[in-house]
Design brief:
alpha+beta, Beta-Lactamase, Phosphatase 2c, domain 1, 2 domains, five-stranded antiparallel sheet, 11 helices, hydrolase, PAS, PPM-type_phosphatase-like_dom, PAS/PAC sensor protein, phosphatase activity
């Protein structure tokens, strides 16, 4: 009976009755199959697209930053065919036949011939318009929770925040204290909406414990005790908290399982700030260590989430601490925004992708020049 069903129903008919758009291309990304849901989602009929490349004014995928994906190394489908490995779902924007952009979640896989060689690729996509409306609202709420204005007098702080999705699991905050500035950068496990909800909890805990902002280890302990009760499953957060006094340059800091912060000296030498304790939310009784150092004029502190180290290339090699330190060494400390941009671009080049697979957040901290 089952064999008869499969004999009577063609593969094309089966694919036309899925809820997701599916198309197949050859190695040159020329479309050879386009199912009915793909027609419904994009407005393009199979008769209009078969035989053409998707970049030929059809889908013309872009990422959420507006970067074109229709080029080798950036096209998800091309990357899957080149590597012989499928790629997990990611959000891109496709061109609808009416000229508007539609958000679609795509998954891509290479298509293998009988001899085991890659002969083409398959992309599966679904309309994410409704989800995008909800995420846009969540994005506005989350962005409002981050520090809107960063200090430039006494202490100069610059930030780069690039969630992997519309919302992310990274959180940072900078706030004035009676004798300086307190800051924190936290990185919750995972990314997307689930991790983003924890960042809102972190914002609340930061505010509730504002009396401890000048004492990073105590701040960590109080936040950790609450998070340990709230996190579920294997959820946790790494974090780096610090307090900087601009007059003396004294910085006290504490690290909860976070990536090692780097301090660039005036001569370009880079030192690593340790040690680090357990991540937040793992063990309520964790006693956090507080360290201190003097930031000198012309020195620059770099604090970052783990994407700055763990971004991998196509062979699985991570970007790593040495590459990051090398960029910091060569940087102009008077141009911190350029440094953050250079690091992000180096990570994208390393991944050979227009987007990273994880949230990326970085802060630079320096003593501001005195008037």
């Amino acid at each position: 009976m089952n064999d008869n069903i499969l004999e009577q129903a063609s593969a094309e008919a089966i694919l036309d009755h899925t809820g997701e758009g599916i198309y197949v291309t050859d190695l040159d990304c020329r479309i050879v199959f386009w199912n009915k849901p793909a027609e419904r989602i994009t407005g393009w009929k199979a008769s209009e697209v078969v035989g053409r490349r998707c970049r030929d004014d059809i889908l013309v995928h872009i990422d959420r930053h507006g970067n074109s994906l229709c080029m080798p190394g950036r096209c998800p489908l091309h990357r899957a065919m080149a590597s012989g490995e499928p790629c997990a779902a990611s959000l891109v924007f496709a061109n609808h036949r009416e000229g508007r952009r539609i958000p679609v979640a795509i998954s891509v896989s290479p298509l293998f011939g009988k001899d085991g060689r890659v002969i083409g690729g398959v992309e599966v996509f679904r309309d994410e318009s409704e989800r995008m409306r909800q995420l846009e609202q969540a994005r506005r709420i989350q962005r409002h929770a981050l520090s809107a204005e960063l200090p430039r007098k006494g202490v100069s702080v610059h930030a780069l925040y690039k969630p992997q999705e519309m919302v992310g699991g990274d959180f940072y905050q900078v706030e004035a204290t009676p004798d300086g500035y307190a800051l924190i950068l936290a990185d919750f496990a995972g990314h997307g909406l689930g991790a983003a909800l924890y960042t809102m909890t972190m914002r609340t805990l930061w505010q509730e414990n504002s009396r401890h902002l000048q004492h990073p280890a105590k701040l960590m302990s109080r936040i950790n005790q609450t998070l340990e009760k709230l996190t579920v499953g294997d959820s946790f957060a790494t974090a780096f908290a610090a307090h900087v006094e601009p007059v003396s340059g004294l910085m006290t800091y504490s690290s909860a399982g976070h990536t090692t912060a780097m301090l660039r000296a005036v001569d370009g030498g880079v030192s690593l700030l340790g040690p680090t304790d357990l991540a937040l939310g793992m063990l309520a009784e964790t006693q956090f260590i507080q360290e201190s150092l003097i930031i000198k004029p012309g020195e620059l502190l770099l604090v970052y989430s783990d994407a700055a180290l763990e971004t991998a290339d196509l062979a699985g090699r991570m970007f790593g601490q040495d590459r990051l330190a090398g960029i910091l060494t060569q940087a102009d400390p008077d141009q911190p925004d350029q440094l953050l941009t250079d690091i992000e671009q180096a990570l994208l080049n390393h991944a050979q992708s227009p987007n990273l697979d994880d949230d990326l957040t970085m802060l630079t901290v320096a003593l501001a020049p005195r008037d």
